[in-house]
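Protein: Signal transducing protein
Species: Pseudomonas linyingensis
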Amino acid sequence: MQRIHEPAGLGEGELLVAMLGSEGISAHLLGQHLLGALGELPASGLLAILVADEDVPRARALIAAYNAAEPLPAEPPVADDPGRQPGVLLC
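Structure follows.
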């Protein structure tokens, strides 16, 4: 397994692990149980996403696409498309 990404926080880490899982990539979030000890440990570098060696290129590409996503311009909801809301990320 290789360490491929350090998420900014627990929420982002869990989201990315779930996203990778939905793409068929088994990923693990390392360090999530260390966050309770922040007063005693360095505050950065605690979290990491690990994937199998063979999944590294695809997982890195998916995370890069996630990081490059931009929110759609704010528009009022469209009556015939209730799923289209302002602030939705365009990936």
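Remarks: The helical segments are 10-22, 56-68.
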